[in-house]
């Protein structure tokens, strides 16, 4: 098999369709070369080699040697330089590149090909001995770290001492002679720490670096990143070997990163940062603060150092042309790395840029308007889960705020939490249920678990493309970066701004949209749902087939859900209404009553309260379908615990506290989830369901009369296993309906149906559909009962199950398609066989999960029901499922 693919100099062995084989970087380098953009020549060793490398016990097959030799010859041919040639040496970079970008997770080696001879050649050819020795110095330092795994700090220390000894402040103060001495010192360090001299053979250097890049695929941080981002471990990385171009050859050289549109807001304008006389990683590392790309951006920020547009107008114009070519070619916003070597532009990378949800929306909508993509493509472009970022509150502009300082608006959204200075503590505190803000001088890949656990991230150093900014945007965490006035002493648990001090544990608020950092918690407001959001949702609604309802029981939630586009209520859990302060005593009286008469006395008090609840919901939902589930949970959930609570019930009923306590004891269940709950309550105490049904119909008639929009109640019986149970309960509901209609002299339409949340119900769906007019899949309980996994105890072990690949994802979050899904499919089929027009929906948490929604589309359900904030996510996911 072929493992090496060349690009540059008029050759492209691959293209953008080859991401799986060449990784994103390699595929796009080949693509850029093939459309005539200036790409330094190079070659990609495919991801297939990565798998082979591990199969062979971290070694290379012999056949690869010849292929790599051909690849090097290709680069030599195009550049006219020779690898290891002391007169005109070819230097290469060796970089990783997986199918999807894993920013900063894997290794890179630059300036490879330098040794004691070639450094002299480079000095002559470049006419710049300082540059040559600085490159050699950087190369040894990077190689020692990445390939040899030697202690990075020792090299940093040697560099610091070299400056101190000479009274210098900046790296750039070091002369060629100084750097030559430092190189000698570095080589000594390598020998001391590695017991062998620094490799002088350039081919040894190359194979070492290639092995290190493949090796970095299995590094701890790469594994953590893959786990957090659902990236399979067997994809592997490719390795890109490419001729070096130098952004550090003086003032006509530069290096930078850019986006073809603003990745934070989606604004259509070039956006990026660059540094004059610097090498690649300097920009991302956040060590020097980069300069703006455009004059407009520099002026907006009130910054002094010239923008690239001003400092290098000709190269900038060429770069802008490349941006336009790339956007038209890829039809998406691109994230680009470039280098200018002595006024000549080189493209080092392009890929679809990571963006915030806000930017994703704006870019998709704008590009459709510009005619670059279709409306349907725009709908397909936005990740439904990312909408979450937009739907949550932002800082209330009217709220008082005590602004400590301001940094860069690196990732939008607002967050408050306790200050923590390290990732491990952030993770621990978050696991204990605390909101935390992770505060770091700058972040590195070692911090990602803490960034993930934190509500927000604040750094003192680094630009908009620093690690913190890029990773936070990807995760959807608010982030303020580069807050330069912060002095962070993490070890002492304190940070300072001017003369103000903030201790670890104090509450801080950050606004990732403005860069503001505030002391204390600041109140928030609901997001704006018009504009691009509304436009995209409109397009989504045109293509989706599934209806989207919501799970809600308070009028406020119902209103929120309607604003988000809910087309009805799929689940109103009536037990949530039983906990209200005013009525819990009546509920307890009902439960603790020893006979029907006692229960009825309590139910009479609850009836008007329930009726008022339902009337309010019907009014908000204005004629849309409302599914109301009759009481479901085990009764003991409502029992009093405190003596005072028992006394209150005693007062209301005239019964003795002791007798009530005895009765409470009798209600104890060993396994309440499988105990006296669901329709079993209605079967044993029909008067409860009778009262609830009466409340529903009285409210429905009342609202029909007062508003003119007749409600469409769908009365739902929970936890049914047999058709007989449903038959009995339907009789109770129908009887109550008839009684109310007779009393009021007005009928309204309604349905009686059931939840399918037990395997037996799914299997017997054919006969259950003879009674039930609709099914709603209660996939929370159906998952619990099908897997035999308690939904309340699963957290203790499911994490390990997912880690070990037993379940691909948490089956309570994303439906277990093979098991639970098969029951859903079968029940839908059997239900329809009996009653072709049966209404089918889902109201478990899965109703708001995009992958589960795709499954619901496939099975042909009529609607999904999700919690209010997930309604837009469900609308978009339903549209994508229909495309
Ligand atoms: C379900 O079981 O999926 C359901 C929606 O009901 P609950 O979560 O209230 O048990
Ligand atoms: Mg349930």
UniProtKB/TrEMBL annotation:
Domain Pyruvate phosphate dikinase AMP/ATP-binding: start-end pairs: 20-58, 64-369
Cofactors (names): Mg(2+)
Active site: 467, 843
Residues at which Mg(2+) binds: 757, 781
Top EC class for this record: transferase
Entry EC number(s): 2.7.9.1
UniProt catalytic activity: pyruvate + phosphate + ATP = phosphoenolpyruvate + AMP + diphosphate + H(+)
InterPro entries assigned: ATP_grasp_subdomain_1, PEP-util_enz_mobile_dom, PEP_util_AS, PEP_util_C, PEP_util_CS, Phosphohistidine_dom_sf, PPDK_AMP/ATP-bd, Pyruvate_phosphate_dikinase
Binding residues for substrate: 573, 629, 757, 778-781
Annotated Pfam families: PEP-utilizers, PEP-utilizers_C, PPDK_N
Molecular-function GO terms, alphabetical: ATP binding; kinase activity; metal ion binding; pyruvate, phosphate dikinase activity
Taxonomy, superkingdom: Bacteria
Domain PEP-utilising enzyme C-terminal, chain residue ranges per copy: 530-881
Keywords: ATP-binding, Kinase, Magnesium, Metal-binding, Nucleotide-binding, Pyruvate, Transferase
Record's function text: Catalyzes the reversible phosphorylation of pyruvate and phosphate.
Name of the protein described by the UniProt record: Pyruvate, phosphate dikinase
Organism this protein belongs to: Sphingomonas spermidinifaciens
